[in-house]
From TrEMBL:
GO CC terms, sorted: membrane
CDD domains documented for this protein: PT_UbiA
Organism in which the protein naturally occurs: Fundidesulfovibrio putealis
Protein's name according to its UniProt entry: Ubiquinone biosynthesis protein UbiA
Compartments where located: Membrane
Lineage of the species this protein comes from: Bacteria, Pseudomonadati, Thermodesulfobacteriota, Desulfovibrionia, Desulfovibrionales
Topology with respect to the bilayer: Multi-pass membrane protein
MF annotations from Gene Ontology: transferase activity, transferring alkyl or aryl (other than methyl) groups
Annotated InterPro entries: UbiA_prenyltransferase (IPR000537), UbiA_sf (IPR044878)
A Pfam cross-reference name: UbiA
Keywords attached to this entry: Cell membrane, Membrane, Transmembrane, Transmembrane helix, Ubiquinone
Taxonomy, superkingdom: Bacteria
Residues passing through the membrane, by range: 20-43, 49-68, 111-128, 158-176, 182-198, 232-251
């Protein structure tokens, strides 16, 4: 009888397309950031009610914003697939399907309903946690659209994307403590910003190098050149490493020194080593 309640293969396949629209595997990884920052500030998990509402709101927010990205880039992505489907082998955002609306697997109306539904849910949850969180969500949505529209305008749009990716973590701290000091918020913002630019934006644009060149995009690798972009990525990740170590050391959670040191060593291995190798091997196939 329980088996009758389970969705069939067709329904599961449809659900995967909507999850692909929101890049859910990527979004689930992003959710770790607000949870970690809330813990670092409080030194413990928040109350069960705040924790559950916060996790739902974070999921809804990332789901809505990633879908919004595909909505804003719909025409560009559609033209790309029509001209020559990109090679997405090994790309996290293509686990289910990359840009399902652009491929015609979902309609524009379905994508809009999905994004609006999750967006409204996220906005309500954020407001219940702290009205400031709702304001940050709206700001993030506006900046995400601006980021997409700057594709052929300026490579500095990467900085806009860096801001967008920091807002979830900042909002999480404000959700558990509306009086959190500016120094902690600023330190978290800078650490996440450096990580996003050096660890996600530049490598992702490197992956799409041929596609971006074909569509006349202005990205860091194309405008700065591969060598300078790789060095900028290394610099940003070095800054992220140092700022994160400082954040862990100064956080009210009171982490022991050996744990801060161990975390910093692991971050150095996972972040700096690949970035250094990237500067030594300027080849798209070796992109992080």
């Amino acid at each position: 009888m329980a088996a009758c309640c389970l969705p069939g293969p067709r329904a599961r396949a449809r659900l995967k397309l909507f999850l692909a629209l929101s890049r859910t595997p990527h979004g689930l990884l992003d959710m770790a950031t607000p949870l970690a920052l809330a813990f670092l500030w409080l030194g413990r998990l928040p109350s069960p009610g705040v924790l559950l509402l916060g996790m739902f709101t974070a999921f809804a927010g990332y789901t809505a914003v990633y879908a919004l990205n595909d909505l804003a880039d719909y025409r560009t992505d559609r033209d790309n697939f029509r001209d020559a489907p990109p090679d997405d082998t090994g790309f996290l955002d293509a686990v289910y399907a990359r840009h399902p609306m652009a491929q015609g697997l979902l309609t524009l109306r379905e994508g809009m309903l999905w994004a609006v539904g999750w967006g409204v849910a996220a906005l309500i949850g954020a407001y219940l946690l702290n009205p400031a969180c709702a304001a940050l969500l709206v700001l993030g949505c506006l900046l995400e659209v601006a980021y997409c529209k700057l594709l052929r305008v300026s490579h500095l749009r990467a900085l806009v994307n860096g801001v967008v990716k920091t807002l979830g973590g900042v909002a999480a701290v404000l959700a558990v403590d509306a009086q959190a000091p500016s120094w902690f918020l600023a330190l978290a913002f800078c650490a996440l910003f450096a990580w996003e630019v050096g660890g996600q934006n530049i490598p992702a644009d490197w992956f799409d190098l041929d596609l971006d060149r074909r569509q006349g995009a202005r990205t860091m690798p194309l405008v700065l050149g591969l060598e300078r972009a790789a060095r900028l990525s290394l610099f940003c990740l070095g800054a992220a490493l140092g700022l994160t170590a400082l954040l862990l050391a100064l956080a009210p959670a009171g982490l022991p020194w050996w744990l801060v040191l161990a975390a910093t060593a692991v971050n150095a291995r996972l972040l700096l080593l690949p970035a250094w190798e990237q500067t030594q091997c300027l080849d798209r196939g070796g992109a992080m």
